[in-house]
Amino acid sequence: MTATLQTIRGCVLAPDPDHQRVSLLPDALLRIDDAGVIVSVEAASADCDVPNTWPGAVIVPGFVDVHLHFPQTRVIGSASGPLLPWLERSVFPEEQRFADDDYAATVADEFCDALIAQGTTCAAIYSSSHPGATERLFAALARRGLRAATGLTLMDRHGPAALVRSHTDALAASEGLLERWHGYDRGRLQLSMIPRFAISCTPELMQAAGTFAASHDLLIQSHISENLDEIAKTLELFPGQRDYLGVYEAHGCATASTILAHCIHLSDHEWSRFVSRDLAIAHCPDSNFFLGSGAMPLAAALDRGLRVGLGTDVGAGRTFSVRRVAAAAHDAALLHGAPVAPQALLWLATRGGARALGRPQLGCVAPGFEADLAVIDLPALGSSDMDTIIDALLFRHDAGPVRATLVRGRVL
């Protein structure tokens, strides 16, 4: 980390804490305390002697990626089929390489570089099923200054022998990770319980994950209803359940601390239970397009008041850029005939993701929030109004690189 800033001046896009809207502060002065918390945000006075910190750039909260896979970093763009064949052909062979701790450490550095380069400050990350690789990932995240919730990807069936791990072994490894990393650096890093998806988990593993998460107040991450073949296989393996969500409910993995990715093919009854259980959603439109899985009805989820964040879903997702995922979310919403406003998409990429992950102190540029920020160069624009700026940030894929990424006021 190269610098810690306590005063920042510039053009700011500030998400509302509670509503899907954003305010433009054309020339704002931010002051940050020693703990990295914003203490004031005010308009710069006409005689302000603080120079613009990043001329030609706009400051937004750091992006929050609510769903991606660390051990798939090097297989981005592997077009080997829909979900289940893609796992067999591309993902499982690569994930087996993470038994090698040195390989895992190398990829962990690449992974952190990619997050920082795209302005992502906080992420919910699937590690591999290997404790050593997960340890290396935590160490890299700690060293590089990023925020994250991560843990072992739990699977004890329907995978290569080198990847499956019994629930007793997985829980023992998670105990060690909990002791060493959960709550690290004032909560910057957190352990998460991650049953990969129902197909790869026995009822015993699923129940153990739910119980462990409840005992330690941990985030639960998993997948649901991404692919029709996946749904059919899940119901075959859990014949006593009426639907996919029922599997997670029956094993203690459907709580207000659960975030489920994809949610493309949910029934109306499942949607209603998402609401009653306050489940969060990881919307991953780029990977859904790439694997031909379908398009989640984003507007319908938002209209129900559900907590939704955006996930790159690397490596089925083809980018580490949450901004590009916001553009894909725009396109997916159009397919449903229910557009979502660009302001709302930027809100989901920042504040929405923070709320989905239970990180209330993140996602806003306002007093009392931690100074996690992304600074993005603006192209030459015909107007300086807010909508023009947001459109440029989200929809001009070739314009506006990230100039700086900050966590608690520190430039990473």
From TrEMBL:
EC number assigned by the record: 3.5.4.3
A Pfam family per the record: Amidohydro_1
InterPro entries: Amidohydro-rel, Metal-dep_hydrolase_composite, Metal_Hydrolase, Metallo-dep_hydrolases
Positions of the Amidohydrolase-related domain: 58-411
Keywords per UniProt: Hydrolase, Metal-binding, Zinc
Domain of life: Bacteria
SUPFAM superfamilies: Composite domain of metallo-dependent hydrolases (SSF51338), Metallo-dependent hydrolases (SSF51556)
Enzyme's top EC category: hydrolase
Cellular component, GO annotation: cytosol
GO process terms (BP): guanine metabolic process
UniProt entry tagged with the keyword Kinase: no
Single Gene Ontology MF annotation: zinc ion binding
Cofactors required: Zn(2+)
Protein name per the record: Guanine deaminase
Lineage: Bacteria, Pseudomonadati, Myxococcota, Polyangia, Nannocystales
